[in-house]
Structures are given as structure tokens and as C-alpha cells.
Amino acid sequence: MSASFDEFVPADYAPRAKMDGIVLSDALVRAAESAKERGVSLVVFASLTCPDCAAVLPYVGLLAKLGMKVELGEKDAEAEEFLQRRLGTGRVPTVLAKDAAGNWMDGVLIERPLAVHMAAAKAESKRDAAVAIGRFRSGGAGADIEDDLICVLEGKKREILPFLR
Predict the structure, then answer these.
(1) Does the predicted TM-score (pTM) go above 0.70?
(2) Each residue of 69-96: pLDDT tens digit?
(3) pLDDT tens digits, 48-76
(4) What's the CA gap between 86 and 49, in Å, rounded?
(5) Torsion-angle region of residue 25: left (phi > 0), alpha (psi -120 to 50) or beta?
(6) Where are the domains of the chain?
(7) Which CATH superfamily is domain 5-111+142-157 in?
(8) Can you say whether residue 100 is alpha, beta or left, with left for phi > 0 and alpha for psi between -120 and 50 degrees?
């Protein structure tokens, strides 16, 4: 499963170019620095063909650039089984964290930030839901991605919405 960001994400992967245009918030940088000091590592299940992964992976790459230990892996049958057992879903991207002792922490980002899932679920029409998801996929939900990554890094338990299972 385990590959570093640079090993997993090819240099010519288009979303990698988005990293240059992203300035991480002070809150996410502080959370990453604190997590790094505590020995926290990120574990990310993703697919390079997934549009939701393309929106999240640049942020993961920037955390790796900050010195966070990041392990990435393609969602294969073994990963699917693990994710189903642990979370009840196998959606990607899934971002989890381990503490310094290798124990799984409570925080998780599944597929899209929680705020994007909620906006799509509360939308009055399928079109409005598609707009919310499209905004995320096109880079318009950076603050939401960062909020969820902070929760992952800090091990804050988040509700896993029933429709994600």
C-alpha cells in the first residue's frame, strides 16, 4: 500500500500543478506542524483517475512538502476490505491519520469535505447538488478541504454520514 506522495503521484499528473496556486491557511500549517511534532502520519487511499481525489491530493502534497509523513495507496481489494471494516465505506479519497504508536486516530475525510457532502445533500435539486460537487472538483472548496484535513490531523471525530456507507 505504502508510497510517498512523490512515488504515488506522477510528476505529469495535472492536479499536481494546482499545488503552485494553493496557499495553505495558517490554521492548517499549525495543525500540520503540531501533528508532525506528535509523530502523526497521514494514510491516504486514492485513485489517480478519481475527480474527487484530484481535488484533495494537491493539499496532501503540500502537507508532504511541509514534512508530514504521508503514505498513499491505490484502493485495491485489500484496501476496500480495510475501509469497509474501519469506516463502512470504500469511497476515495479517504484520508486517515495514525498517531506515533501506529494507532488509528478518529478524524477522517471521505470522498469530499463534510461541508460539500452536506451542501449536496441539502440541495433542492439534482442540479444544485451537482453544482456544489462541481465547485469542489474545480477548486472552489479549498477552505472546506483544509477544515477536514485539520480534523484528521487533530484526530477529531467526525460523523460519517449514512449516505456515505
Answers:
(1) yes
(2) 999 998 888 888 888 888 888 889 999 9
(3) 999 999 999 999 999 999 999 999 998 88
(4) 24
(5) beta
(6) 5-111+142-157
(7) Glutaredoxin (3.40.30.10)
(8) alpha
